[in-house]
Design a protein that fits this description.
The complex is a heterodimer of chains A (261) and B (246). Chain A is of the alpha+beta class. Chain A has helices spanning 3-27, 226-260, and strands spanning 37-43, 46-50, 66-69, 72-79, 86-88, 95-98, 102-106, 112-115, 121-122, 128-129, 136-137, 146-151, 156-161, 168-172, 175-177, 185-188, 191-193, 202-204, 213-216, 218-220. Chain A has two helices and 20 strands. In chain A, helix 1 (3-27) packs antiparallel against helix 2 (226-260). At the A-B interface, helix 1, strand 1, strand 2, strand 3 and strand 4 of A face helix 1 and helix 2 of B.
């Protein structure tokens, strides 16, 4: 059979993966703290049909050989950790990280998840939780008598109690950083998990040792650029069409053989 | 049996090989830094104890198209594109030097600077390792500088320099893994004039329209060969009919 068929098939499946990545990015264009993905392509191995430079005779060498590539492969997706724009919301429990770092969230199974999404809420006990109800780590509880909550740029969370002159400190938001944030595993729900590729989390106070500062009343928008994604979508679609055209051409060639011989 | 059949058969099978090569290019129309393969056909005359009238066709790839692709802006600090000629030196699987144009770099958990497909990038004195940083910049000459964790902006540290080379394209060839290597296996000296643009990626240099046209032209040529095989069959039938005794 014509190997062009299998080569173009790899082209089709790679463009398919690219389109899935693009549509996931576009779907998350207004997801707080979302980091876009990018499909990474790699040319598949080459098969040497005729070795260039081999001896054609004792005195002469072949000037050029024949190496046939076997197509393309999606080597993986890469999270692009550029910062999204900060949006001012003036909501006391919204925090954005201005710089590197992740917020820590205690997941129901006891492990920690890492997130750039700082939309927090209070649960029935006054605990600061994410939209899914997972408590922030280190855990903090806002007392019932609290009039207002203030989060400092170094992560200090303090509340103003009714009838009290001085604010009361209820905890500190700690950020973590990774050597290779792109190696984190995205698990959905705006959360990432630590992997062997990301390295161990290094906890620290916001604003110190390279960690970003915590900004109250702001949120980090998704870093998806709509125009860029649409342009990528156009080129992906055209590449898909051309690869499918090759398949139909190869099919016609085979059809011609089977009909004429 | 007329040897015409074998000449056309060789033609058709080599057209199919050239078809594979072009469809490989088209499959990689969106692979970062991919360089298109070229195809050519050569006529191979057969000499022997007969009249040398047969010329078989032979498909070859005489090399790679080294024209630069276009640059697309990504804004990511670790994306680099080589402007004009030149390559980024990487360490192949056997520790040898190889070259690539794909500049979508990553840093692994041990701080090694690698391509997105996991091949270490060479700098001054071996693969580049980057200490933990807050901000990383790759300069136009390949210099990697970082602002270390907790340091002020004026304390920018120079870590290493990505080895940029400009080998003579006549002396390098693509290996089975898609990386380029020097044919003589020697080390390529660093080339001072090569420029990198940080925040950009280079697209594949495949011209989709010309590849598509080639594929269509090859498919018609393939049909022509099949037609010739058909003609050979008809010739054979005719001569068989002439010799038939009623």
């Amino acid at each position: 059979m014509l190997s062009a068929l299998w080569v173009s098939k790899t082209g089709l499946s790679a463009q398919d993966i690219a389109l899935t990545t693009i549509s996931n990015n576009l779907a998350n264009v207004s997801t707080t703290g979302f980091k876009k993905d990018r499909a990474v392509f790699q040319d598949l191995l080459y098969q040497i049909q005729k070795q260039p430079g081999a001896q054609a005779s004792q005195e002469t060498q072949l000037p050029s050989g024949l190496q046939l590539g076997t197509g393309v492969r999606a080597a993986g997706t890469q999270k692009v950790f550029t910062t999204g724009d900060l949006q001012i919301t003036d909501n006391a429990l919204d925090v954005a990280i201005n710089g590197r770092g992740f917020l820590q969230v205690q997941l129901p199974d006891g492990t920690l998840g890492y997130s750039r999404d700082g939309q927090f809420h209070l649960d029935a006990n006054g605990q600061i939780v994410t939209a899914k109800g997972d408590p922030i780590q280190p855990a903090m509880t806002v007392p019932e008598a609290a009039q207002s909550v203030t989060i400092g740029s170094d992560g200090t969370v303090s509340v103003q109690l009714a009838g009290d002159v001085n604010p009361t400190e209820i905890g500190n938001i700690q950020l973590v950083d990774f050597v290779n944030p792109a190696g984190l595993q995205a698990v959905g729900g705006n959360l990432f998990r630590e992997t062997a590729a990301s390295g161990a989390p290094q906890e620290g106070t916001p604003g110190l040792n390279g960690l970003g500062t915590v900004e109250q009343g702001a949120l980090e928008n998704s870093n998806v650029n709509v125009v860029e994604e649409l342009v990528n979508m156009i080129s992906t679609q055209r590449a898909y069409e051309m690869n499918s055209k090759v398949i139909s051409t190869a099919d016609q060639m085979l059809q011609f053989v089977s009909q004429n011989l | 049996m007329d040897k015409l059949l074998y000449v056309s058969m060789t033609g058709a099978s080599h057209n199919a090989k050239a078809q594979t090569l072009h469809s490989h290019n088209l499959a990689n129309a969106r692979t970062t830094g991919f360089r298109a393969d070229l195809a050519q056909a050569r006529s191979m005359q057969v000499f022997g104890e007969h009249f040398p009238s047969r010329a078989y066709s032979l498909t070859e790839n005489p090399g790679t198209d080294f024209r630069p692709g276009s640059l697309i802006e990504t804004g990511r600090d670790l994306d680099v594109a080589v402007e004009g000629d030149g390559f980024i030196a990487v360490e192949g699987p056997n520790g040898e030097e190889a070259f690539t144009r794909a500049g979508d770099l990553i840093i692994d958990n041990l701080g090694n600077l690698k391509t997105a497909t996991g091949i270490p990038i060479l700098g001054d004195g071996g693969p580049i390792v980057i200490p933990p940083f807050e901000k990383l910049e790759i300069g136009a000459d390949g210099t990697v500088s970082i602002r270390g964790q907790g340091q002020t902006p004026e304390a920018l540290n120079q870590v290493n320099r990505i080895k940029l080379v400009n080998p003579d394209t006549a002396n390098i060839s693509k290996g089975p893994d898609g990386l380029f290597r020097r044919n003589d296996g020697l080390l390529e000296p660093e080339a001072p004039g090569i420029q990198l643009s940080s925040g950009f990626l280079e697209t594949s240099n495949v011209n989709a329209v010309s590849e598509m046209t080639e594929i269509l032209a090859l498919s018609r040529q393939f049909e022509l060969q099949v037609k010739m095989m058909k003609t050979a069959e008809e010739n054979d039938q005719t001569s068989a009919r002439l010799l038939q005794v009623n």
